[in-house]
Amino acid sequence: MILVGIAGVYLHSTFEKRFLLAFGSIIVVGIGSIAFHGTLLFPLQMLDEVPMVYCVLVVVYCCAENKSYRRYGAWFPVGLTLYGLLTTIIMLYAGPENHLLEFVVFQSSFIFVVLVVASHITKIYARLTDQSIKRLWGITVATGLTAYAYWNIDFRMCDVMHNLPFGLWNPQFHAWWHVGASICSYMICLLICYDRAENLDRKPRIEWKGGMLPFVVVDKMNTKVKSC
User: What residues are paired with 207 via a beta bridge?
Assistant: First the structure.
């Protein structure tokens, strides 16, 4: 996750700050995830979960404000920030003593903003004409859903995974969830970056680094549009 975040920032360094923030937030999530999974301490669990909420909130902003004009005004980023702060405060207030409340607040707030992103992605996909971009969106969604399925299997069937028949090893689906989430996070940021550049008439195209890592390239910059 850290690597794809760094790659996203480096390969899209000439794009708007919103996308650098989106890719950069993936790095923070990766650092928090390492800290939490390596210690299982509550403060570092917050370092894992809280950045996830803010990361998706940045993506919400990028998806919603994707036109050449500001659609929702200054209140929109302020509202998103307040949503993140309220979620953070409640999670910290719950603390390790009330883990169920913390878990429910995190899951519900995170899933809600993910669904908001999904609704915007559906609209973006519906107006696409480029079949190669459609395929990338299809791969991204399939990767995300598969990773989420792995997380659920590992979370809900942990004992089964540790006691597979015929002496089979635990496939460590939770680890594969992290791999899939990393790929999906990078691809979503990449494709909304492409959508934004297309709406600004910057003639975007997808190129591949080393034949493996896609990134967005633009042929021209629209100097009339000034936005973060």
Answer: 215
Task: Kindly report the pTM of this predicted structure.
Answer: 0.92
Q: How confident is the model at residue 219, as a pLDDT?
A: 81
Exposure pattern of 30-65 as b/e (b: 16+ CB <10 Å)?
Answer: bbbbbbbeeeeebebbbbbbbbbbbbbbbbbbbbbb
79-123: per-residue pLDDT in tens? 999 999 999 999 999 999 998 999 999 999 999 999 999 999 999
Interval 27-37: pLDDT, tens: 999 999 999 99
Look at the block and give the residue holding tokens 């635990």. Answer: 170
- How far apart CA 192 and CA 210 sit, in angstroms, is 22
Q: 3-state DSSP call for residue 157? A: coil
The DSSP string of 75-144 is HHHHHHHHHHHHHHHHHHHHTGGGHHHHHHHHHHHHHHHHHHHHHHHHHHHHT---HHHHHHHHHHHHHH
Task: Report residue 153 as tokens.
Answer: 């299997």
Block residue for tokens 């975007």: 204
